[in-house]
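Need tokens for this chain, all 164 residues.
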Amino acid sequence: MTIPLKLGETARVQIPVWESDFFTKKSGLGSGNFTMTVWKDGVLDAVTPTVAEIGSTGEYKVEFVPDDLGVWFLEVKSDYDGKVWEEDFPVGKTQHFEAQFEAADRGVNTEFGVWIEVDGEPKLDLTSIGLKLYDNDGTEVKDLGTQAARRLRACTSSPCSRLS
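Here are the structure tokens for all 164 residues:
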């Protein structure tokens, strides 16, 4: 999964740690029970995430603050149960994305609107947009490709009405 952030926002994931019965969550772990690695744009970074249990629930919050623009990647391994979590955090100025699907079913043409803001202002100078469809498990179902900007109509209010 990808979680877009603005510079200065906290990158955060919540992870459960399970006992060997895979039913009961393991409470009482600390940062020494996790191996955490952070990359920025594919290069290992020295940022050290923090880990804290949420109450006594066996759910743990892992977080760090990216200090530069780019694509950050967090890998957390529970040394207790061996499970690994991975998360992408693209850090940039984009703060709002909205896609409005009007029809999407078995061969029906799909029209969608796009609303993108940069620093609170509509972004009207898009050069292209790509669209991929995923099922509920996060598996890519179809890559609809990239459309050139001439196929996009700039809109100045959310939601956009239609592509032109």
